Amino acid sequence: MAEPQSATGRDGPPRPKRALVFSGGGARGAYEAGVIRFLVDELPKRLGHPISFDILSGTSVGAVHACFLAATAELDGSRGSRLVEFWKQMRLEDILPLSAGDLVRLVAIPGVGKKLAERMIVELKDKFTSLAPMTVDSAAKPAASSQKLQDAVSALINLGYKKPEIEKTVRDVLKNGDLSLEDVLRETLRQMGH
């Protein structure tokens, strides 16, 4: 990128080096994208000349941004806007798809007892279902049922139940038809008297 001459002319002192250093920290990247948009798209318009950076550095998501700026250095003045659009289109479920197994591992956290874990499963049912819907179509029923059996048994083991005492009950509950994992867990606990 061309840089305007210094006020002292060609023979004057060289301009200082400019550096951008970006930090890490997932969500901070969205904020940084807005700052980048201003620095590379808007600020040059206000100053009347392009701005170049001699050093680009970053950690984690900041390193990704530094690489983006280096790779797009020769592009037109909308590269900051492109980065912002990328961040706007990003969705949690695209980056971190949640499954029943993930929730099960969360309830195994020390200090979360059986009762609290059961309540968490029931209270988070609507939220969990919206993140990872568990439906079984008729063509995939045996495979899905087998996965549901494994997930339910794993969940209950993590809640402190013993595998022999729960596996048969979970199998019986699964024979009742097309149930979500949450419904399988709830019915299994009900049949076991909890």
Give an account of the 3D structure.
With 194 residues, the protein is mainly alpha-helical. 57% of the residues lie in helices and 4% in strands. The protein has ten helices and two strands. The protein has a two-stranded parallel sheet with strand order 1-2. Helix 1 (28-47) packs antiparallel against helix 3. The radius of gyration is 27 Å and the shape is rod-shaped. Residues 1-9 and 126-143 have low confidence and may be disordered.
Give, in spatial order, the strands making up the sheet with the most strands. 1-2
Largest sheet: 2 strands, parallel
Q: What is the helical fraction, as a range of percent? A: 55-70%
Straight-line N-to-C gap: 70 Å
Summarize the structure.
This protein has 194 residues and is mainly alpha-helical. Helix content is 57%, strand content 4%. The termini are far apart.
Q: What are its keywords?
A:
single chain; 194 residues; mainly alpha; two-stranded parallel ribbon; 2 strands; disordered N terminus
